[in-house]
């Protein structure tokens, strides 16, 4: 699956229900986005998707296809 992150198109090989946080950190090696509570409450994993703040720990990768993701 191709995703748009920080104005680049990257291909990721992950199951559709994999949290975006783990794709960002483990697959793409971008460690600025942090794991915090895992429950979307603390905000440590926040990223911007199409200009809206979302918690990447509870956002499945298949929900971000075709959207612009911005992260640290």
Provide an overview of this structure.
This protein is 11% helix and 26% strand. By secondary structure, it is an alpha+beta fold. A five-stranded mixed beta sheet has the order 2-1-5-3-4, with no helix packed on it. Strand 3 (46-49) and strand 4 (52-55) form a beta hairpin. The longest helix has 8 residues, at 20-27. The two termini are 21 Å apart. The relative contact order is 0.30. The model has no long low-confidence stretch (mean pLDDT 96).
The helix fraction, in percent, is 10-25%
Please give the alpha-carbon distance between the first and last residues: 21 Å
The secondary structure category is: alpha+beta
Strand content: 25-35%
The succession of helices and strands, N to C, reads EEHEEE
Number of helices: 1
How many β strands by DSSP?
5
The side-by-side strand order for the widest beta sheet comes to 2-1-5-3-4
Unreliable segments (pLDDT under 50, ≥5 consecutive)?
A: none
Largest sheet: 5 strands, mixed
Inertia-based shape? globular
The overall pLDDT, averaged over residues, is 96
Alpha-carbon Rg, integer? 11 Å
Q: What tags apply to this protein structure?
A:
alpha+beta; globular; 1 helix; 5 strands; 26% strand
Topology:
Elements: E1 2-5, E2 8-11, H1 20-27, E3 46-49, E4 52-55, E5 68-70
Parallel strand pairs: 1-5
Antiparallel strand pairs: 1-2, 3-4, 3-5
Summarize the structure.
The chain has one helix at residues 20-27, and strands at 2-5, 8-11, 46-49, 52-55, 68-70. It is an alpha+beta fold and 72 residues long.
